[in-house]
Amino acid sequence: MKYITILLLLIGFDFSISAQQTINRSIVHQGIQRDYILYIPAIYDGSEDVPLVLNFHGYGSNANQQMFYGDFRDIADTEGFLLVHPQGSILNGVQQWNVGFLGNRNKTDDVGFTAALINELANLYTINLDRVYATGMSNGGFMSFLLACQLSEKIAAVASVTGSMTPDTYDACNAQQPTPILQIHGTGDRIVPYNGDTWTRSIEDVIFYWVNYNNCESSPTTAALTDINRSDGSTVEHTIYSGGDNGVTTEHMKIIGGGHTWPGSSFTFPGTNQDINASMEIWQFFSRFDINGTLSVPEFENSQENIYPNPTNSKIDLSLNFSEKLNYELFSPLGKKLIFGTIKSSNQKIDLSNLPPSIYFLKLDNQVFKILKSN
User: Fold this and answer.
1) CA 223: distance to chain centroid?
2) Rounded to whole angstroms, how far apart are CA atoms 307 and 319?
3) Tens digit of pLDDT for each residue in 69-80?
4) Nearest partner of 161 among 331, 285, 289, judged by Cα
5) Cis omega before residue 309 (within 30°)?
6) What pTM was computed for the model?
């Protein structure tokens, strides 16, 4: 228990958080005030260590905009992790992260700021330091990769949306341990080109770098996801390189025809894919790992055959081996809880017939499964 909680208990107050909180705070690093926005879900009470997700904004954006655009708050409400949105520094009037862009004179130590921020939050809250994750949009995705290279002792997994690696980050990467990687990127991205440029490595280069570093199998499994929203002009292909050291994977969700956007966002800019929700995909990815690699999971993990039919147009059948009753929850692509209950037998049905066609997420105990509801 951290010192603030202990102090309040000693003087007789009941320390609890009854509603979610959004807190604007700052720390001083290198003599500069650095701001951040912290989101604390209502279920956090400080009684146990919880994961921390760092969500970095894009170039010219800010922490508040990223909190709404690449939104994890509904997911944090159900999963119980703390969510922090760091604010970049300003250079030439533009909010940004110093990731070594060619010709950029930014000298800000954003890696050091991130390390200081993690330490600050760990002093204030009960955080599981083995489960600190980094994600971000565009420049924030570049920043997440920079942390994987220069702060890997603190970062359990990384997910980049429309970001990549600069030549500086790529050439000087010095990761100290296997790092799970998820890259979500559109082939039609005109801001951070899928095939790279002089200032950014191609997405293929980035994936192959981490496949090799993580010692993953060279032959991946690739699945074309169901084109649920046929009006968005894009489809999704999910490639997984498994078998890495410590059980880590290197994964790529290729948005074929997608633009420089956050898939599944409620802000539907042109080029936004709506077949997946990037925030849900990222948390599902993060939740499989800690700093030591793959987390231990219940016996029914990876038993997709036991949840059938999938896709379904009405009901799903659950055929699971378990010794105690299991709670289940079904969430929308944006993290809204739709159905919940208790599994009391090894052969139970969940009726989805009243739900529209979409991707849904079924949570069984501490594991999450993707369910496709068709017409």
Assistant:
1) 20
2) 7
3) 999 999 999 899
4) 285
5) yes
6) 0.81
